[in-house]
Automatic annotation (TrEMBL):
The chain crosses the membrane at residues 413-434. InterPro entries: Aspartic_peptidase_A1, Aspartic_peptidase_AS, Pepsin-like_dom, PEPTIDASE_A1, Peptidase_aspartic_dom_sf. SUPFAM superfamilies: Acid proteases. This is Aspartic peptidase domain-containing protein. Keywords: Aspartyl protease, Hydrolase, Membrane, Protease, Transmembrane, Transmembrane helix. It comes from Rhodofomes roseus. Coiled coil: none annotated. Belongs to the peptidase A1 family. Residues 38-370 form the Peptidase A1 domain. CDD domains: pepsin_like (cd05471). Pfam families: Asp (PF00026).
Amino acid sequence: MGAPGINIPITPVPRYQGANAQGTNGDVSLSNSNEYAYLVDVGIGGQTFEVLLDTGSSDLWVVSSNCTTQDCAEVPKFDTTDTANLTLSGAAFHLGYLLGSVTGSIVADTVALGSYEVSSQVLALANGTSGLDLSGTGYSGILGLTFPAEASIAGTYGQTFIDNVFASLDEDDRFFAYKLGRNKTDSSFAIGQLDPTYANSSSNFTYIPVSSAGTNDGQYNFWKVPLQYITINSTRFDLSKTSVSGASTNIGILDTGTTLLLGPSADVERFWQSVGNTRNTDSGWQVRCNRAAIVGFVLGDGDNQQEFVLDPADVNWEPGSQQDGWCMGGIQANDGVFSGDWLLGDTFLRNVYAVHHAATNASSHRIGLLGMTDPTAALAQFRAVRGDDTTAPGQVHSRAPRSTQLTGADVCGVAVVCGFVFGVILALLLHIWLEPRSRGRKIIRY
């Protein structure tokens, strides 16, 4: 107990051909967008691999030498003959993402991350991958950092890697922190301590309890926070009713493994119509490359709400992705997101320093966020690179249309009201039917 916290080198690697765009709808092209996947070195059985840092999944897996699919070609693979501590469980492993999947077998071996080493750590060896394009980006697997409830490897085989690491730390140090950068030198990942480059203390963070909405028995499955509304150029933009059962607001999921910021198609369409100078194509929403919008996401609940502003260059991707003056939008539509309404991927997370705290005796799971984007400076930089936009600003469509879909709570409420109304009507009809008869009836006394 009481192991020291450490900074762990994180390597941004360009994503090619939409590599691991888990969370996109499969039509959004990420090619030539100069976008990054964020990787860390993990040792498994004495072999070292670059794996994707992913707060949107739970499992640790790496491709094995038995993986022969094109998706995992030309990446370093785990050699099962070159390790002394490998334990085979004989159980199969399967994990599906919004885009892509992986299959293989569950094993255990010694796993090291920085100075942390866990013996007999459960993980999966991938014998086949699909739709992840590991070969295009060059990483060999994924290190999941979310809650065990989402693990495809059952807890009976062992704890997740991050839970095993947390078990070696004092309660107050059971957290990890990261800053995702826009270039190859400004990213950070640490466990048990803050990176002083971005924060010397926790006093300036906004802390938000993790939401368990949409889960059974109050379990936690993802790093989820309440999302109140969005702002576009300081104008409030309300969101459609949440689809998450038990939630009073929209729910956002912090996901470092997803490149884009994803939301319901109806809200995303209204968002881009509000920005203006946009179009919807087979490759997703595009925006004129010189169109600047200051967009904020208001997170938290009650009095503990805070707006986090995005750099216009994250809303309107850089000219490297342009086509005849059109650039790719950093916010795209996806109605396949489950357990939340919005995926707050890298286009959001690059604008904050994020700290994920495990529960302690004094507090529940929580996320601390520190805004890192100065909207005035970011807008000036955007215009210096893209040029001025002389067209009129878009008209913000602030109000969300009324939803025609009923949630379980809605159905229950309607049933209660209908039952009450039916009872009142039935009582009234009985009263009308019985009242004249009682008046004309002769009363006989004995």
